[in-house]
TrEMBL record:
InterPro entries: AB_hydrolase_fold (IPR029058), EutQ (IPR010424), Say1-like (IPR019436). It holds the Pfam family Say1_Mug180. The lineage of its organism: Eukaryota, Fungi, Dikarya, Ascomycota, Saccharomycotina. PANTHER family: ACETATE KINASE EUTQ, ETHANOLAMINE UTILIZATION PROTEIN EUTQ. It comes from Candida theae. This is Alpha/beta hydrolase fold-3 domain-containing protein. SUPFAM superfamilies: alpha/beta-Hydrolases.
Length: 427
């Protein structure tokens, strides 16, 4: 049953939304990014409120699971875009195909998408619409050979405490590898980004030579520190300074929530919450996905998201990014030296770390998902034609995938030439 607290939160939503509507003509939207967007301001308020729900109540209210969204909702709303090979079919008990490329080779890429939601909220339709859109926007050669799997992991409300989801991802990864697949790409947002990084740490610790390293990782607002330090909720830190702008607010990180998510587990663990440990270069330097030639990593954060500082600290050690939290507001304009770190990938991994000006947590999957409407209107839509501000994240992610996805004969050659192994956890 719904708790009294959960009921009060649900009942407060109409009042919260009405307040946003009343303020809008005078003060504009809820933050700088959405100052001129009432729709996105209302969505932001709903997401903020949803994140305050007790874990048990979120499970009670979670009527749309991955299978329903993929096999019922998206098929109904986007019939043409879901007519894909193996669409909606299970690969194993914890993953579902969005598409398996017909006549693919074992060296063609498979993207594993792990969704965000704090490990207690179901996948939202906009997240899967966005991932489906990324696929449809790929260059034709890449699209014909790329497959996409959705990880359907158990939520905390179903009895799986944070940390257990990793072994569901491991099971799917091991099955793919056992079938000979060696070109795997990790895509994750928020908690899904945390899960993707945890898999890399698992591979480093497992040292299993039969498991290939992920060829690439796309990390969108990765949740690298499950429990923020108290000093972070003070002026001068993104948790404090972006409190009124972002959907992630410090009030949700109370001791009660920590216990709901983790039980009595120690969260300061590389397989659970790397940011709650002191960062050491030795924990990251020998992960090929972050550091070796022929591999690649993309990390996206928002200037106005609460997790910004944690993400930049992680990027400093994982991919040697020099980006630091900015001291002056961007005014919504990108400045390459401040907002982006990109390597050439000549002698090591190709890396692209981007801070979206005025961006908020998980913006690309929650506030750019209307891209799917444009694709429906124009199935031949090219990513370069998209507005660089309105679809900041979509353009960056698809451009990255188009650059780094290796398909066909090139993929077979790269696989044959690859000398990096998980053995001994070293390059």
């Amino acid at each position: 049953m719904l708790s009294l607290r959960g009921l009060l939160i649900i009942l407060s939503i109409p009042i919260r939304l009405l307040w946003v509507v009343l303020k809008y003509p005078i003060f504009g939207g809820v933050n700088e990014k959405f100052k001129n967007s009432l729709v996105n301001s209302l969505k932001m308020e709903v997401f903020r409120t949803g994140l305050t729900l007790p874990v048990g109540d979120a499970a009670f209210l979670g009527i749309m699971n991955n299978n329903f969204i993929i096999n019922t909702l998206l098929k109904l709303v986007h019939p043409a875009l879901t007519k894909l090979n193996k669409y909606g079919k299970r690969f194993d008990k914890q993953s579902i195909w969005l598409v398996e490329a017909p006549n693919r080779s074992k060296s063609d890429p498979i993207i594993i998408y792990s969704h965000g939601g704090g490990y207690f909220l179901e996948t939202q339709p906009s997240q899967l619409e966005s991932v489906l859109s990324f696929y449809h926007l790929l260059d034709e050669e890449k699209k014909q050979k790329t497959s996409v799997l959705v990880l359907d992991y158990k939520l905390v409300g179903a009895g799986a405490l944070v940390g257990e989801q990793l072994y569901e991802l491991v099971a799917t990864y091991e099955k793919l590898a056992a079938e000979g697949n060696d070109n795997i790409v990790l895509l994750g947002d928020s908690a899904g980004g945390n899960l993707s990084v945890a898999l890399l740490q698992y591979l480093k610790q497992a040292r299993n030579p039969s498991l290939p390293w992920p060829r690439s990782a796309v990390l969108i607002s990765p949740w690298m520190k499950i429990v923020p330090d108290q000093h972070q909720i003070t002026p001068g830190h993104s948790f404090h300074d972006n409190e009124s702008r972002d959907m992630i607010q410090s009030q949700i990180f109370k001791e009660e929530r920590r216990i709901e998510l983790l039980g009595d587990k120690n969260h300061a663990d590389l397989l659970i919450s790397p940011g709650n440990l002191e960062y050491k270069p030795s924990d990251w330097n020998d992960i090929p996905t972050f550091n070796a030639k022929g591999y690649s990593t993309f990390i996206l954060a928002g200037e106005h998201e609460s997790l910004r500082d944690d993400i930049l600290e992680f990027a400093k050690y994982a991919v040697k990014s020099p980006l630091v939290p900015q001291t002056q507001d961007s005014g919504g304009a990108i400045e390459s030296k401040v907002h982006e770190y990109k390597t050439q990938g000549t002698n090591d991994a190709y890396v692209d770390v981007v801070v979206e000006p005025w961006g908020v947590h998980d913006s690309v999957l929650f506030f750019e998902s209307h891209i799917i409407k444009k694709i429906k209107q124009n199935p031949h839509l090219q990513v370069k034609s998209l507005d660089a501000v309105e679809f900041f994240g979509v353009r960056r992610i698809v451009d990255f995938l188009n650059k780094t996805l290796v398909v066909g004969e090139e993929a077979k050659t790269l696989s044959a030439d690859d000398t990096t192994k998980t053995t001994n956890g070293k390059l």
